[in-house]
Amino acid sequence: MRIPFAVFRVLAAALIVAAIVAQLQRSYANWTADEVKDIGFQFVNFFSFFTIESNVFSIAVLLIGAFYAFTKRPDSVWFNVFRGSVATYMITTGVVYNLLLRNVELPQGTTVAWSNEVLHVVAPLVLLVDWLFAPGRLAMASKAIWVIISFPLVWGVYTLIRGPLAFDERLERNWYPYPFMNPETSANGYLSVAFYMILIALVVGAVGAGVIWLSRRPVLLSKKA
What we know:
Oligomer: single chain
Number of domains: 1
Strand order of the largest sheet: 1-2
Shape: globular
Largest sheet: 2 strands, antiparallel
Number of helices: 7
Distance between the termini: 5 Å
Order of helices and strands: HHHHHHEEH
Number of strands: 2
Structural class: mainly alpha
């Protein structure tokens, strides 16, 4: 099953790349149409979305995983932890988006519908399927949960520090990637933000624990690997 999964990973990575590029092109067209002066600032905003960053990580995981599968090399420990971490981020992205953000227009410009579905629904499912079925998965130690949650914590701190310093001339307000992270528009300011951050941290932790638990179970297609 290694070669079929290698092909699956390459195709999935290509789809995610196409989705990111399509949304970035649409956003860039909107920025230029609005005669935005600081395009660099808008690019940084675009790549400050947790969804975009998680999908970029997914491309790396899928392509590295395809390399391991094509060459029939055993997965390395570092890659297994990286793969499990990214699977956690993508599953969390799918859950949070579909529960909190599906009907919210995010500030990266007019959303490309098919790209939006790929990044928030298809890609999370791909990483979940890959974790469940792809050969090569290794058992993860319980302490790996600290590696898993480290990136979301750093991203959250980065977002809250950058927000008050990132005035978006196009929106005429400070820029935050998601409405629930903006203390200026949340009903109870930083209290509301803290609530959602804790909630998301719990979701990441729970999903990460599930990913670790699954890593200790036989790969579902292992007999055919």
